[in-house]
Amino acid sequence: MSQQRVRAVIFARYTLSNFKALYGRLRSSSSYSKDYFQINAKAASIVADALGFAGDRVNLSYAWPDGGQIDGYLLFSADRLHLGWETNKPPSPWRVGQVGSNPETSLEGVADLQAEADANAVFDAINGRNTKPWLIAVKLAGESAKLHTRVYFENPPAEFQDRGLDQLPSEVVAAIEALPPSAGLGAIGWEEPKKREPRAPAVVKAVLEALEREPNVLLVGPPGTGKSVALEDLREHYRSIPKAPQFDPDSWPGNWTDGSEVEQETVSDLRSEALVFHPAYSYEQFVAGLFPSSTSKGAIKLEAKAGPLLSLGHWASADPGRKALLILDEFNRGSAAAIFGDTLGLLDGDKRSGAGRAGSYISRPYPNQEMMVAPIYRRDQAEEEQFDSELRLPAGLHIVAAMNSTDRSVAPLDAAMRRRFSVIRVGPDYDLLTRRLLEDVGKADRDLPSSQSADDWTPDDVALLAVRILRTLNDRIEFCLGEDFLLGHALIWNAGIGDTAERLRLLSIAMDTKIVPTLRTTFLDQDDVLAVVLGIKDSAGVFSDREATEDTLGYWRSAPSALASIAPKRLVLREIGAFDPAKQLRILLATARD
């Protein structure tokens, strides 16, 4: 078997306590009574995560070269995790025996003694040789709950020179050296090379397809339609997975490769940054600016510093295989054209630099001043690096921005900026909402029950009603104002929990606290339009709630006679959550009715 990526390494000192657990239970001793290592709190999270521990116990196996394997377990007991094995059957590489009799034995000593003093003498003899053994268990990425066991030495004996601690990756050695003297066991872990499934798959798919054609994408849509979630998903897609050591489970020394030396796919050739534009955000923060800093003598000087656009572009330009993502949320809340400034002319795909083409360029801001590259953005491992005097944007730098279509309190994007972005409209996703709310998605096309009694409705019926309400309201809004003002599916995203009564309650709360307040703002001082959108058809005015039509979301209240000549009727909206499930259902049905 070849080298494989390491998920975690567990390391244990060869202390008397650990020796006793490995030596086995003695009939006449109460101190030789364990078949496990206790895992301290600091190492517990690493070990549990690596072995998939989520409850009281995980069954696992210990393995070593030439097919050796035994069963073991990870168990939570007495407020601690226990890493154990069958009684008197620890992993062979960790047991004492006659060195040279088999490949797995590296700890000289007589096994199966029954007197505590004799067993202690075996430990004293090993300790007296000053080889300082460490017990190692390696968990590989992508493998089931299996630990590959070895022994390494701080001072390896002549026959085990290939099993010295210096054979281990530098990260593991550093973790071992950092283990407090009082701790008998530690662990170090690396991230699994896998990424989370997107929560807004349709939007992410559309953006990734657009980025294959153009380097800049703009998401435009009402609030609650998943734009910010899609940006988070995209950042996950561009997330760089740190390199991890490699280990050969079929080799006794392990044939380790240090993580810094590993060539792994292109996972380290991805990077992302996320920003939120706002009215105070500027070119100097985004591209480059002069910022005060102190000198060694305590004076103040102005230092040229690069912003995220220059920094990510510099990093991505080192190799055509590198991909960098710059996320810009609330794109129209700042003055986008002013923030980009002269770099606007470099945004077009045909102006970008890349394999075989230099691309367009402008002079770097403050070309006569030294501008150092931050370590994480350097093209290589150089100790120091300056920005080039010519500023180019590489093809591998992708910019994805998002803005709310309903926000009229900020200036619209200027035409020069907008034309440099592929615009993707993001609206409410009824299919995604249906899959979220329904327990049985296969019955999503059925009609709602004809009964208005909550007792005759299932939880999935209420889920379908929620989707129906959102779709109906949006149909009305689109005719009144257009698609920029539609309601997003996130407004009722959490209405799919519990039984029928609980779902009616959650949907009513969503109506009271999210949908109605949004519509009040959208149709400010337009009660007549708001009434139409909410399905309130009775336009006759009344003087109190008792006189109003039952089972509707609202009613028109007439002004008192003294104000009747100057005050118009006002729309009064009821709080649905204040009613019982039966009335909640009737009001919600009336709202959804065409």
Automatic annotation (TrEMBL):
<dbReference type="Pfam" id="PF07728">
    <property type="entry name" value="AAA_5"/>
</dbReference>
<dbReference type="InterPro" id="IPR027417">
    <property type="entry name" value="P-loop_NTPase"/>
</dbReference>
<dbReference type="InterPro" id="IPR052934">
    <property type="entry name" value="Methyl-DNA_Rec/Restrict_Enz"/>
</dbReference>
<dbReference type="InterPro" id="IPR011704">
    <property type="entry name" value="ATPase_dyneun-rel_AAA"/>
</dbReference>
<feature type="domain" description="AAA+ ATPase">
    <location>
        <begin position="213"/>
        <end position="431"/>
    </location>
</feature>
<dbReference type="InterPro" id="IPR003593">
    <property type="entry name" value="AAA+_ATPase"/>
</dbReference>
<dbReference type="GO" id="GO:0016887">
    <property type="term" value="F:ATP hydrolysis activity"/>
</dbReference>
<protein>
    <recommendedName>
        <fullName>AAA+ ATPase domain-containing protein</fullName>
    </recommendedName>
</protein>
<dbReference type="GO" id="GO:0005524">
    <property type="term" value="F:ATP binding"/>
</dbReference>
